[in-house]
Design a protein that fits this description.
Rossmann fold, Arc Repressor Mutant, subunit A, binds magnesium ion, Helicase, Ruva Protein, domain 3, 9 strands, 14 helices, 5-stranded parallel β-sheet, 13% strand, disordered N terminus, binds adenosine-5'-triphosphate
Length: 344
């Protein structure tokens, strides 16, 4: 979510449309959720078992890069449990009191979804430990010497936390989730399924090769696949194309500066900054973020995971390094290196 903000691949005016479309395209049941076999199977077992036992499900933590389906899964969990869903987020819970207010208003069995849970404040986090484990919170009333703590029983609820950065979660919090699902990037075949479904909802006529072309540029991410599909729709509409084939899709996406490997402007500027300004690195993350004019978190959660996966960038103890493949992707010649200085 947060990482989505500064990302302006397609301009901020598309953000409202993006939200609305995202809601419309979200699968509503676990069986409609494409890919993520492992997580889906594990989660379905957790939910099935709690349904059989007639209890609320264990708390669930979902981690993974932006746009892979964490929010979608949280909604599916509530739907599968026929439970009400309450949505909040780490940045919105800055005081323990904010969290206490949310928790004390939950009804029995409700699913509380906390997005970006790694961004909650420390005091709120500590309150959450007790709530997760004992369904109880201590509410502090008053200030200073006169402050008293009133224990408050909570109805059983299921916490679903989502994070793009599981590594930032303190151990005690991570340990209190009964189940952690790590979402992986999607294969091109899976993205084609996502696109097929979305194209029907958008009433588009797309040939198989058209789906393949869009999928191959979608960085393993359903959100990006859906977004590119909408841009291809615009292009086809304006150019009077009735069936989107491979070349239509390619032409449209070239225009939006999404290259054949799915790299967009931000990805390329990260690689360019590394290669052209720092001879390929190593460069610290924060320096890199300043150079490309983005938040550190955006570079780290949005651009890097894909660049690393594509073998274009390496994270080393001394900083980020461009691989030879990155130089070649930018049309540059990789520098000669001493064999032992490779990637720091
Ligand atoms: N497995 C899937 N099958 C079909 N569509 C999916 C799947 N996963 C995600 N999507 C689509 O991708 C879009 C983004 O998914 P979602 O909002 O759940 O991502 P997220 O992981 O919560 O991202 P963020 O970290 O930015 O909050 C949704 O509109 C949804 O329709
Ligand atoms: Mg989300």
């Amino acid at each position: 979510m947060s990482a989505e903000g500064p990302r302006e691949l397609l301009g901020s005016s598309s953000m409202t449309e993006e939200r609305a479309m995202e809601a419309a395209l979200r699968p509503k049941a676990l069986s409609d959720f494409v890919g993520q076999q492992t997580v889906r199977r594990q989660l379905s077992l957790v939910l099935e078992s709690s349904r059989m036992r007639g209890t609320t499900s264990d708390h669930v933590l979902l981690s993974g890069p932006p746009g892979l389906g964490k929010t979608t899964l949280a909604m599916i969990i509530a739907a599968e449990m026929s439970a009400a869903l309450r949505i909040s987020s780490g940045p919105a819970i800055q005081h323990a009191g904010d969290l206490a207010a949310i928790l004390s208003s939950l009804t029995e069995g409700e699913v509380l979804f906390v997005d970006e849970i790694h961004r909650m404040s420390r005091p709120a986090e500590e309150l959450l430990y007790m709530a997760m484990e004992d369904f109880r919170v201590d509410v502090i009333v008053g200030k200073g010497a006169g402050a008293t703590s009133i224990p408050l029983e909570l109805p059983p609820f299921t916490l679903v936390g989502a994070t793009t950065r599981a590594g930032l979660l303190p151990g005690p919090l991570r340990d209190r989730f009964g189940f952690t699902g790590h979402l992986e990037f999607y294969s091109e075949a899976e993205l084609e399924l996502v696109l097929r479904r979305s194209s029907m909802m958008l009433d588009m006529n797309v040939a198989s090769a058209g789906f393949a072309e869009i999928a191959s540029r979608s960085r393993g991410t359903p959100r990006i696949a859906n977004r590119l599909l909408r841009r291809v729709r615009d292009w086809a509409l304006v150019h009077g194309v009735h069936e989107v084939d491979r070349s239509t899709a390619a032409a449209a996406l070239e225009m939006y500066e999404v290259d054949e490997r799915g790299l967009d402007r931000l990805d390329r500027s990260v690689l360019e900054a590394l290669c052209l300004k720092f001879k390929g690195g190593p460069v610290g993350l924060s320096t890199l973020a300043v150079l490309v004019g983005e938040e550190t978190e955006t570079v780290e959660t949005v651009a890097e995971p894909y660049l690393v996966r594509e073998g274009l960038l390496a994270r080393t103890p001394r900083g980020r390094v461009a691989t030879d493949d990155a130089w070649r992707h930018l049309g540059l010649t990789p520098p000669e290196r001493h064999p032992d200085s490779l990637s720091g």
